[in-house]
Specification:
single chain, alpha+beta, Elastase, domain 1, Neutral Protease, domain 2, six-stranded mixed sheet, two-stranded antiparallel ribbon, about 45% helix, binds zinc ion, hydrolase
Length: about 350
């Protein structure tokens, strides 16, 4: 018996399929080879998820109150594909020689910290779920993912992508897919899918800002800064401040994200543009957070978290449904007389999402 009726885990990789598709068509085998291998591996993993999901969800619930400490274990796949691999760092152990292991450990800790300290949430499931991660997965693997049970990081091919543990927001992005699965469970297609992606970018960015102690004005609002190889013309995978400007590279192409509904992309690829149109709710969050000022996780983040976990957000929500709930949550949290709900309303207006 499972208590997770309708629960559909997302197999979300950091690098969207449309980016790898383009790389796989490149004339240079040094570029197309790793991209092709990564695509094949990802499709195998996606298929395997469907088979094993039921078992992982039927796991027995914890009996005691969850701890305020994370429970992290880092494994090393040694460039193979066996998961989880060899245990290399358990919770509470000192850092070792391998910087990748140490970054994965810190990234899991930073994610746990934001959700606990800002929102009193205990881990991904709200019930102290242990956080496991495997590093050095496969050879030249151009991706990182959360498979519903653990995080997995590739080292990149060194040509286009480098070590995926380099971006703390990438780690936060993937783990937030877990939070979404356990809460609003947004369907991974079209607008609800783009909202699902946006939740992961929003909390991924907040995890980075929280760990660095940055205000909304100080933050770079980039997702995946540090995972592009030095020769790539670009700063990151996505920009919440200026969607569509993260990269413009002869091999990688141009960042396809719109910032407003005027440029909404209708496509069947990428699950109906989940990594593309997420630029619109991403930008709305950026506008609300910077208008409110201070630390973004305290006001805008709290409002978004209230909507994600509050129980009113439908798995099939459109942007307009989500926008309406954020305005409602802002009023409930901060009152009818405050600036908060007005800032949220204005942010959605600026990206062209009408609130019904
Ligand atoms: Zn994602």
């Amino acid at each position: 018996m499972t208590t997770h009726g309708g629960f559909e885990p997302v197999f979300c990789t950091v690098v969207p399929p449309h980016v790898l598709d383009r790389l796989a068509r490149n004339d240079d085998p040094a570029l197309s080879g790793p991209a092709r291998r990564t695509l094949v591996r990802d499709s195998e993993l996606r298929a395997r998820r469907r088979v094993t999901t039921e078992f992982s969800l039927a796991a027995a619930p914890a009996v005691k109150a969850p701890s305020d400490q994370p429970l992290r274990t880092i494994y090393d796949a040694g460039h193979g594909t066996e998961l989880p691999g060899t245990e290399v760092r358990a919770e509470g152990r000192d850092p070792g020689q391998d910087a990748t292991v140490n970054r994965a450990y810190s990234g899991l800790g930073a994610t746990f910290d934001l959700f606990l300290k800002a929102y009193r949430r205990h881990s991904i499931d709200g019930d102290g779920l242990p956080l496991d991660a495997t590093v050095h997965y496969d050879e030249g693997y151009n991706n990182a993912f959360w498979n519903g049970e653990q995080m997995v990081f590739g080292d990149g091919d060194g040509e286009i992508f480098v070590d995926f543990t380099n971006s703390i927001d990438v780690i936060g992005h993937e783990l937030t897919h877990g939070v979404t699965q356990y809460t609003a469970n947004l369907t991974y297609y079209g607008q609800p899918g783009a909202l699902n992606e946006s939740m992961s970018d929003v909390f991924g960015a907040l995890i980075k800002q929280y760990s660095l102690g940055q205000t909304a004005a100080e933050a770079d609002w980039l997702i995946g800064a540090g995972i592009l190889a030095p020769d790539v013309t670009g700063t990151a995978l996505r920009s919440m401040k200026a969607p569509g400007t993260a990269y413009d590279d002869d091999v990688l192409g141009k960042d396809p994200q719109p910032a407003t509904m005027d440029d909404y992309v209708r496509t069947g690829r990428d699950n109906g543009g989940v990594h593309i149109n997420s630029g619109i709710p991403n930008h709305a969050f950026y506008l609300a957070a910077t208008a409110l000022g201070g630390y973004a996780w305290e006001k805008a983040g709290l409002i978004w978290y209230d909507v994600l976990t509050g129980g009113e957000l439908s798995p099939k929500a459109f942007f307009t449904d989500f926008a309406g709930l954020t305005v409602k949550a802002a009023r409930e949290r901060f009152g009818d007389g405050g600036d908060e709900f007005q800032a949220v309303e204005k942010a959605w207006e600026q990206v062209g999402v009408r609130i019904l």
